[in-house]
Amino acid sequence: MTRMRKNMNMLRLLPLLLIALLSGCSMQEPADTSDPEVSQKWIAHCYKEAGKASGAMKAAWLVKAYEFAEKADLFSEQEKQVPEQVLQIGLQTKNFSAFNWAIDHGAEPAVQFGDLVAYHELGREWRDKVVEYSPDSLPVFMSLAVDEFDRKFFRKHAAAFMEYDFEVPQPLEKTEFKIRYRRFLGIQLKEALEKQDEEMIRFLISVTPELENTGYLDEAARRAMQAAGEYVFGTLNDESLKLKLLELNWPLKPIDFSSPDLSEEFLEAYRAKPEYVIHTQGLEEWDGPMSPEEARFLTTLPEKAWALLPKLHFDELTEESVKMVDSDAAARVIAFKAAQKPLTQADYNELVNWALKHGNKSVFEYVMQKSGKLDIFNIDFAALAENQKLFEIYAPKIMSRIYYTMDTEPREDGVTIGNIKRVFGAKNEKAGLWLVHNYDLSESWVKATKGQTLLMDVCEMGNLLATRYLVEKRGENVRQQTGYTEMQFTIFGTTKPTEGKLSPIFFAAKSGNPELIKYLVSKGANVNARSNYRATPLMYAVSAGKVEAVKTLIALRADVNAEMNPNLKNMDLRELGVFHEISNPYRRAISTNNKEIQRILREAGGRP
Fold first, then answer.
1. Cβ-contact 542, 597 below 8 angstroms
2. pLDDT at residue 223 tops 80
3. Is residue 420 exposed (0-12), middle (13-18) or buried (19+ Cβ within 10 Å)?
4. Which of 336, 343, 397, 416 lies 20 to 30 Å from 483 when distance is taken between CA atoms?
5. Residue 91 vs residues 52, 59, 98, 174, 490: alpha-carbon distances, Å
6. Element (H or E) spanning 402, and its range?
């Protein structure tokens, strides 16, 4: 026992010793221990007084006898019994000083479950002392501290508790304890986040057990831990802490794979936990499409992760793998799909569409080899348009029968106007040019679209080559306008008003193709044309979020402060929006929260 510990214990027992000194004892403690006979008499006197006393005073006399005997080198069997006697007095009288002294001098407190619960009820210092004596008592005390939200005990002992693998003995249930433990962690994390207490957040993460099962989390704890994850990835951007969260299977919000802050080391560590990736990204069920970066990352995961994906997400994964022309990702994904279930003709059609759309020759050849045929009427006509050679081969047969409807459902023996329109949106503009060169669709187009000309739809899809042909070879009018209806009240009800007087430049503005806009203006299109609602092409470009189109229209002197008809009512606009949000270009930029377009408009003199 060190001198420091002895001194500390004497300080703790000072109140007891004062009681003894003031009790009116007739004998004075010897000044030194040089005379064994005098020393023995004093020790005997202490035991005699202890025999007459009770409680704290009894403990004080026993301690006095023990300490003097030890100092006088007169230690006997009687003194060996003193620590245990003082321990019992401490427990009976709830005197921590006596209890503490007794343990420091060799007394052995009972540490059965019931005893530990009793120590817990006596207070934190009692628990701390018992943990010091018997570290194996810590799990029980930690469980009880968690129940009572005892932050001080938790923070003092949480690191040591990790050595017990966060396990608690019976009769405390392991699963239930882990739920309670994480709930307590969640409460503290929430408090630390509110205070932006980085040190505490780091500490709490360091004493969090690995999450083996999401059933060990309640919703409040999950939200707090997700918020802590956002703090680590955002505010701190701490690489080592990010890796620690992965190690713990931390309940993170979906990772944004487009973030520049994701290191290759982090991505490799994330990739090594495929089931965790699927769960963290929320991909076990369909809840909206994945981002391309997310789908691309999934192609690098082992196949067992793909088996967890619902069909729609697996289709996204497959298409993304087909986009990756220079990798073997598509071959792996298709092989996995075929191993799960033999591919049908519908599967082959889908693969062909993706292969054509993204220019993946190897996938196209694979399908042709495996299926032995090309079901051309079920091929995506717009995807076929991406390959000019194949398009010119198969388009004549597909175009052999045209259905004059705007839907895009496949037909067994032909194609709809709706699917033909999609061809004009292909990256390969030559396919659209080929169509308008070989087929005169203008008259029938207006019937199918109920008033919208072929030129308007070609402009809406942004195809400059087909537009040039229609204007220069077919004589299409760049100023032709759509019709419209006014709201009317009849005995049959109210007719819905429509916006009209829309010329091709409105549709070109919506497409966002700046070269197309310039071409139309060069052929006489009015950059400040007005619809019957007094909307302008610039308003259409702003609403569509087409930055380059906005710049081009302004450069061509579009009116940046044009206003719509102030007499319009919201019921007139219907699906177009609320009048005060769309009445001029700047308000449209505000309503879509497009900061870049707002800046461009301001610099050009635009105002709300």
1. yes
2. yes
3. buried
4. 416
5. 19, 11, 8, 30, 94
6. strand 402-403
pLDDT tens readout for residues 90-117: 999 999 999 999 999 999 999 998 999 9
Paired sense of beta strands 402-403 and 415-416, if any: parallel
- Express each pLDDT in 180-221 by its tens digit: 899 999 999 999 999 999 999 999 999 998 988 766 788 999
Annotated domain spans of the chain: 3-108, 499-608
CB count within 10 Å of CB 285 equals: 9
- Find how far residue 162's CA is from the centre of its chain: 27
Question: Which tokens is 41 given?
Answer: 């008499």
Sign of the CA dihedral running 283, 287, 289, 294: negative
- pTM for the whole thing? 0.69
Of 579, 516, 573, 582, nearest to 544 by C-alpha is 582
User: Pairing relation of β-strands 489-490 and 493-494?
Assistant: antiparallel
Looking at this protein, which amino acid is placed at residue 421?
A: K
Residue 412 tokens, joined:
């067994």
Two tokens, residue 143:
């469980």
* 494 membership: H or E segment, kind and range: strand 493-494
Q: Report the top-level CATH class of 499-608.
A: mainly alpha
Residue 24: is its pLDDT beyond 80?
no
At position 131, the amino acid (one-letter code) is V
Do 426 and 434 touch, CB atoms closer than 8 A?
no
What DSSP element (H or E) covers 116?
A: helix 113-122
| Residue 457 · residue 424 · CB < 8 Å | yes
Per-residue DSSP letter, 283: -
Q: Which residue has the tokens 């019957």?
A: 532
| Structure confidence by residue, pLDDT tens digits, 231-273 | 999 999 999 999 999 999 999 999 999 999 999 999 999 999 9
DSSP string for residues in 370-386: HH-S--GGGS-HHHHTT
Contact between 279 and 214 (Cβ < 8 Å) = yes
As a whole number of angstroms, the distance between CA 64 and CA 45 comes to 10
